[in-house]
Every structure is written in C-alpha cells, then in structure tokens.
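Summary of Year 1 activities. Much of the first year was spent building the evaluation harness for sequence design. The harness presents a backbone, in tokenized form, and records the residue chosen at every position. We chose the following record to illustrate the format because it has been used consistently in internal testing since the harness was completed.
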C-alpha cells in the first residue's frame, strides 16, 4: 500500500523514473524510523471527547461525597488461557516446519479490583467452567471461584460479587483505616454489569459510577497496565514451573491444574506494588495522584501547572514502561530456557493478550474438550467405612500373631 501510494504521488509530480522498488522501501523505512507492528487494543475506537467531561463529573462526585484515594475503586474482567505457551521454537536449517502439540484452550475469566491508593487489592474473582474441579479437593482457595458454562462473567455473578465480597471487603478495609463507610466503584458499560440502581448498598454510601461508552482504553485505571502486569507475572510463574520440571514441556503443562493456576495468579496479584497501581489512576485523577507522590522540587513552584502536569505525565509513563519492560525481559529469559527460540517483546505482548488464533469454537467443541479432560483425570475411589474397620481388625490380629509390641497394637486400636 505504501509503495502504491508513493507511485501515485510520483505520477502527480511528473516523476517518471521512480519505481518504488523493495530496496527503496527498506531504505525509506530505515531513514524515517518506520517499523512494523501488530495493531492491538481499542484506543482508536475510543471517544476522547468524552474524557474531560467525565473527569469533571468524577471530581464533582469526589467532592460531593468527601472521598479520598482509599475510597475510590475500579474493577474489570479479562480472559486468561492458563495453560498456553507461545508457538515458537528453534529448528534445524533443514527442517521446513516445527511439529507442535494441540494448543490448550483452557480459559478462565478473572476480575481484578483495587483502590486508587494501591493499599487495598481485593481478592480476584475467578470464573471457570467446572462447578467443583477435582483438583480443588482439600484445597483452601485463596481467591473467589464461580463457574458458568462458558467461563464468562454474568450479571448475577457480578451482582453477587458486589454485595457478598466487594461491599464487605471495602467496609472492613475502611474500618481498619478509620475512614467513613463510603466508596465508589468505577465500571465500564459491559453487558454483564448490572445497572447503577442495582449496585449500591442499603444506605447508598457504597455505589458504582459507570465510565462513558468507548473510553475504557483511555480512562479505566485497571486497563492501564494493572491487568497486563498481573498476567505477565502469572506467565513468569507458569514458565518457572515448567522450567523447574525435568519432564518435557507437554508433560509438564498437562500436570498443571486449575489449582496451580489459581496459586500462580494469587502470587501475581501480590507482586503488584501500590506505586504501580497509583500510576494507573493518573488518567482519571492526575492532580490527586500528584499530591500523593510529591515529585517536584521547590524550583518548580513558579512553573505553570499545565507544564508541570505534562512533564509529570511523561515521567510516570516512562516509569510505567520501564517496569513493564523489566517484566517482559524476565519473561523472554524464561521462555528461552523453556522453549529455546528468538523472542521479541512483541511476541510476549501477543501471548499476554490471550488471543485464540484458531478462532472461536462452538460450545459443543468446548464441552467435548471438557469431557475429554474429565475422562483423563484419575478416578476418585471411595472406600466404605466397613472396609476400613475390617482392614484394621485384620492388621491388629496379624500384629498379635507376629508378636508385635503391645504399645504399637494400642496405637492401632
């Protein structure tokens, strides 16, 4: 397309000797610093004209209810293919293809939520397909688990989470901080989120506020690297687990259960620092975030506020990128150890987006895979009490016949 556009431009300028060759295109890209990237995110679909009015309305809500950063919350959902690894590896120069294995489609949805001060990270809500996974037996789940047929969020699950978990956890946190029992939760306008009238506690002091349509990539704090970093930390834990195994990648991955994924995800959430979370609120309330992080020297007192804010935004964005780049570098190192290949940061970003490259599958296909996985799990054998008692009596009788010490027999009794 670029070459065709250039040819059209050369014809309009009556330049007949220009050919727009591949060599010219490569040299042009080098001169102008043009590089090839995959289009990601939804930023171009956003409505930036709605951002400023929302910020003003949000500030008014904060002033009206007397809220501070400890009482401002944001939550959002994301998908996670918890057994998926990148599809790259090294091969011999004589090999034309790299044989692989069936790509795992085991997916969960998790809901992340935290406040603007970064001091309160709520337990993530995990949504899977199985109602009672076998790997959960004798397992004290550190997170909240619910299930649906397709592992997606529903209005009822979100409503239950709001009243049974969010409200109770927020009240407990505010009580410990000696703050009034009031808070606001920022949400996007996803179809699975009930209306604002349905999401408020009895006295109406803990309520929700919805973001305008199509401003989530620009404004929503959780989307400003909180979920992205959580998933990167999770994948680092997953890779470390596979690297520590002495078995093949395929065998090691098959042994990773939903229980392991939840433990890795809980650990990933714990690695998020308050400073990282505070920075993610800059697009919603930069002035408040600035006051929480005193970043300017006395020499800046006479600098106009708009220049200070622009300078501060650039600095915090750079710090945020440095943090993410550090995690990506660690991920690449682990990937090279687990599945040797030449990885780029774009490969890690693409992997972290949890895109199903084979397209959406029908529910019947997903149910078939689920049933196959259930069949592959070892059966749980239930032993009747009568059988156990009979076995103990037999053991005691055998002990007497073989002159076992009386103290050992009493222990068995």
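For this record, the design step produced the sequence shown next.
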């Amino acid at each position: 397309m670029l070459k065709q556009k250039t040819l059209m431009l050369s014809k309009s300028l009556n330049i007949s000797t220009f050919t727009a060759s591949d060599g010219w295109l490569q040299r042009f890209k080098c001169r102008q610093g043009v590089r090839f990237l995959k289009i990601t995110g939804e930023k171009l679909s956003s409505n930036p004209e709605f951002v400023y009015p929302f910020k003003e309305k949000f500030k008014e809500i904060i002033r009206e209810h007397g809220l501070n950063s400890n009482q401002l919350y944001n939550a959002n959902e994301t998908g996670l293919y918890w057994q998926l690894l990148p599809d790259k590896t090294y091969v011999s120069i004589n090999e034309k293809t790299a044989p692989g294995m069936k790509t795992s489609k085991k997916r969960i949805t998790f809901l992340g939520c935290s406040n603007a001060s970064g001091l309160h990270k709520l337990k993530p809500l995990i949504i899977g397909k199985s109602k009672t996974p076998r790997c959960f037996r004798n397992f004290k789940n550190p997170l909240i688990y619910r299930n649906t047929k397709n592992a997606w969020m529903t209005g009822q699950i979100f409503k239950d989470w709001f009243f049974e978990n969010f409200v109770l956890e927020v009240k407990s946190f505010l009580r410990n901080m000696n703050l009034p029992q009031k808070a606001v939760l920022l949400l996007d306008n996803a179809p699975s989120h009930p209306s604002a009238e349905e999401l408020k506690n009895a006295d109406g002091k803990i309520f929700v506020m919805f973001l305008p349509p199509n401003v989530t990539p620009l404004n929503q704090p959780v989307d400003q690297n909180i979920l992205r970093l959580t998933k990167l930390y999770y994948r680092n834990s997953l890779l470390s687990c596979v690297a520590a195994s002495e078995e093949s990648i395929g065998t090691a991955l098959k042994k990773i259960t939903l229980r392991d994924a939840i433990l890795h995800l809980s650990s990933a959430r714990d690695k998020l620092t308050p400073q990282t979370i505070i920075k993610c609120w800059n697009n919603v309330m930069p002035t408040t975030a600035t006051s929480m992080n005193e970043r300017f020297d006395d020499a800046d007192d006479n600098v106009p506020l708009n220049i200070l804010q622009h300078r501060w935004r650039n600095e915090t964005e750079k710090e945020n990128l440095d943090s993410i780049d550090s995690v990506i570098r660690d991920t690449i190192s682990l990937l090279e150890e687990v599945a040797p290949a030449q990885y780029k940061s774009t490969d890690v970003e693409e992997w972290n987006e949890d895109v199903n490259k084979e397209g959406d599958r029908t529910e019947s296909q997903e149910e078939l895979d689920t049933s196959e996985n259930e069949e592959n799990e070892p059966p749980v054998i239930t032993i009747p009490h009568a059988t156990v008692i009979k076995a103990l009596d037999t053991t005691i009788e055998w002990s007497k016949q073989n002159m076992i010490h009386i103290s050992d027999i009493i222990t068995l009794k």
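The chain has 15 helices and six strands. Quantitative recovery figures across the full test set are reported in Table 2.
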